[in-house]
Design brief:
single chain; 410 residues; alpha+beta; Butyryl-CoA Dehydrogenase, subunit A, domain 2; 3 domains; four-stranded antiparallel β-sheet; three-stranded mixed β-sheet; 12 helices; disordered N terminus
Length: 410
């Protein structure tokens, strides 16, 4: 059984919650006037302070954290979804997504850093205890701490068949296993490790356990550079007899798989928002290029074939905006969105693929060079195929929910 069909079967077995409620979201977001002022300020900072670093990062394939991190801290980017009581900005997810989309228009490695940092911190708010939140969230909001998500493994699939395990030993757990493609592994101070604590209990035998970076027995190895999103670091974690206190279990033992599913729901919508931002930027550049590039005495914009490309690009963007808005409004109301999240992620990756394809065609041969950002946006977008599960997983999740009676009209 593939991991996709296994996840679908797991959803069907649970009976698909028919719009299961989450705990009521802690932050309802900023008042409209305060939010608009904040959004204007952070948008300006993104283009003023971060966009000029694009060439340096692309050339070096490394994000200079000594430069970037203070800029992100100043603009509040580390605590966008963290409540004000922990020192964060306190945005709702609906308010956060336009900002994440704007980050995806500039250098992709920075977008990856911001996305993962905020996505995992938002997931912790959903499932960690108050004591755990008090311990880690203030540091996360101020950039002195960062949590990476340890799910994917080189030797097993993601989900019920993970190989990493933790054995209880008194007041501790001892972890052994391997994780890889762990984003932000170069800067993370903590890792949220998904592991088996009771192999015989199936879905209820998997837990989330926090492991600190300096834990004896944990080795972090960088993986090779990526096609796009240069500077976004991905590493391998080798856990050999890593001993952590039993209090490091996030939430309750045996809830790790369900926590993962909930975390991935909204994170998939976040990925759709990055698809949206990349697509918007590619479209804006294509419109400008079509107006100014003249061949045979006419601007490209006068040609019907180019107009068709632009219309198709705009249609994809418009549809994706609506899907994301619907999903995030439901999430902010405290609703689960398993089908909507997977459909947003699936349509988003397909839409940004089509948009960047057409953007390259609009620009022609010069678009294949680094003269314009189209070349980078094209590469950056391809990571969206793989983050938080490939297309087959999204299809399986959405189909499994509807086959099990899921009601998406709430």
């Amino acid at each position: 059984m593939t991991s996709a069909t296994r996840e679908m079967a797991s959803n069907a077995k649970r009976g698909a919650y028919k719009r299961k409620l989450r705990a009521h979201p802690e932050t309802g977001g900023l008042p409209e006037k305060e939010y608009e002022a904040f959004k204007k300020e952070i948008f300006a900072a993104i283009w003023r302070d971060l966009d000029p670093l694009e060439k340096q990062i692309e050339d070096a394939e490394h994000v200079p954290h000594e430069i970037v991190d203070p800029l992100l801290l100043k603009m509040g980017a580390f605590g966008l979804l963290i409540p004000k009581r922990f020192g964060g900005v306190g945005l709702s997810t609906s308010q956060y997504l336009p900002i994440l989309a704007e980050f995806s228009k500039v250098q992709g490695g920075i977008r990856v850093l911001v996305h993962v940092h905020n996505s995992v911190s938002h997931g912790l708010l959903e499932c960690a205890s108050e004591e755990q939140l008090q311990d880690i969230m203030p540091g996360v909001a101020h950039g002195t701490k960062s949590v990476a998500f340890g799910l994917t493994e080189p030797d097993f699939g993601s989900g019920l068949d993970i190989g990493t395990h933790a054995v209880r030993d008194g007041n501790h757990y001892v972890l052994n296993g391997r994780k890889w493609l762990i984003t932000n592994s170069d800067i993370a101070t903590h890792f949220m490790i998904i592991c088996k604590t009771d192999p015989g209990a199936g879905a209820e035998g998997i837990s989330s356990i926090m492991v600190e970076r300096n834990a004896p027995g944990l080795t972090i190895t960088p993986l090779p550079e990526t096609m796009g999103c240069k500077g976004g670091e991905h590493g391998q974690l080798d856990l050999v007899n890593v001993r952590v206190p039993a209090t490091n279990v996030i939430g309750r033992e045996g809830q790790g798989l369900f926590q993962m599913e909930e975390l991935l729901e909204i994170s998939r919508v976040f990925i759709a928002a990055t698809s949206l931002g990349t697509a918007e930027r590619a479209f804006e550049l294509s419109v400008d290029f079509a107006k100014t590039r003249v061949t045979f005495g006419k601007p490209l914009a006068a040609r019907q074939a180019i107009q068709r490309y632009l219309a198709e690009m705009a249609t994809d963007i418009y549809a994706l905006r609506g899907m994301i808005a619907d999903a995030t409004q439901k999430w902010d109301r405290g609703l689960r969105i398993p089908a909507e999240a997977s459909m947003c992620k699936l349509f988003g990756l397909e839409a940004v693929g089509r948009v960047t394809d057409r953007a390259l065609l609009v620009h022609g041969g010069i678009g294949y060079t680094r003269k314009y950002p189209i070349e980078r946006l094209y590469r950056d977008a391809r990571l969206n195929w793989l983050e938080e599960g490939p297309p087959t997983i999204q299809m399986a999740v959405a189909a499994g929910e509807f086959l099990a009676g899921y009601d998406w009209n709430a």
